[in-house]
């Protein structure tokens, strides 16, 4: 069954460019030119991924992402932004976006990131659980429970935690995590990994300022401590 992607951007030329190329890859495409319409389509349709521009009329991309993430931690969201400021990129990731692409972008890059994010959502997980230190990783429901309470992880956060905790003590560089969890090669910005780790600590650790499990190896990367 073909996957359905929602493209939300107020620039008609960009919507047409993305729609044309995504349809060539076999995706079903829905489109919107403002945040309110995009949010309405999201509520009415079963989506596999959202390409969401930041600068939108009515509701901007940050607002749309925030509203979606209040109840939906699974649908991949890729933010599109013409801004170069680091704070804009980080804000989108902090709000729960899985990725971002800066305009002007190459279609090849967009396709690679779309495929990587959708591929993660269709990978099957065995119906089993991993348990350690009061943390339960439910591989069937794609959820993590801390002392019996759901951590409400996004799919990206879940994949990151499952991967890094699978080999306690092994240090992974940011480049390795991009390749293994984000499933594409390093494309110029490693900040996505740092933001995801920070959000993960806030949800997993009892005190994110003094982590006990998701540790930093200064100058190298991150590792999981049991």
Report the total helices: 8
Low-confidence stretches are: none
**pLDDT averaged over residues:** 88
How many distinct beta strands? 12
Structural class: alpha/beta
Write the SSE topology:
Elements: E1 4-8, H1 12-24, E2 28-32, H2 35-44, E3 49-53, H3 61-69, E4 77-81, H4 86-94, E5 99-102, H5 107-122, E6 129-132, E7 135-138, E8 143-146, E9 149-150, H6 155-165, E10 172-173, H7 174-182, H8 191-204, E11 214-217, E12 221-224
Parallel strand pairs: 1-2, 1-3, 3-4, 4-5
Antiparallel strand pairs: 6-7, 7-8, 8-9, 10-12, 11-12
Helix pairs in contact: 2-3, 6-7, 6-8
Structure explained in plain terms:
It is built from 8 helices and 12 strands. The chain has 226 residues and is of the alpha/beta class. The strands form 3 sheets. A 5-stranded parallel beta sheet has the order 2-1-3-4-5, sandwiched between helices. A 4-stranded antiparallel beta sheet has the order 6-7-8-9, covered by helices on one side. A hairpin with a 3-residue loop joins strand 11 (214-217) and strand 12 (221-224). The mean pLDDT is 88.
Summarize this entry quickly.
The protein has 226 residues and is an alpha/beta fold. Helices cover 40% and strands 21% of the residues. It contains 8 helices and 12 strands.
């Amino acid at each position: 069954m073909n996957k359905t992607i929602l493209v939300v951007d107020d620039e008609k030329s960009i919507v047409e460019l993305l729609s044309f190329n995504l349809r060539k890859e076999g995706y079903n495409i829905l489109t919107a030119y403002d945040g309110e319409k995009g949010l309405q389509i999201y509520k009415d349709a079963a989506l596999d991924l959202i390409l969401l521009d930041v600068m939108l009329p009515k509701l901007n991309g940050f607002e749309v992402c925030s509203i979606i993430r209040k109840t939906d931690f699974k649908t991949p969201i890729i933010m599109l932004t013409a801004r170069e400021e680091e704070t804009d990129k980080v804000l989108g990731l902090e709000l729960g976006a899985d990725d971002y692409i800066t305009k002007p972008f190459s279609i090849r890059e967009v396709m690679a990131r779309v495929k990587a994010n959708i591929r993660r959502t269709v990978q099957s997980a065995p119906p089993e659980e991993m348990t350690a230190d009061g943390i339960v990783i439910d591989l069937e429901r794609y959820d993590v429970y801390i002392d019996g309470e759901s951590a409400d992880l996004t799919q990206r956060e879940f994949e990151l935690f499952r991967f890094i905790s699978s080999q306690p003590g092994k240090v992974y560089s940011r480049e390795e995590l991009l390749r293994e969890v984000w499933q594409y090669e390093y494309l110029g910005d490693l900040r996505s990994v740092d933001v995801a780790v920070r959000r993960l600590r806030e949800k997993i650790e009892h005190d994110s300022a003094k982590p006990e499990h998701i540790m930093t190896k200064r100058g190298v990367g991150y590792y999981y401590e049991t």
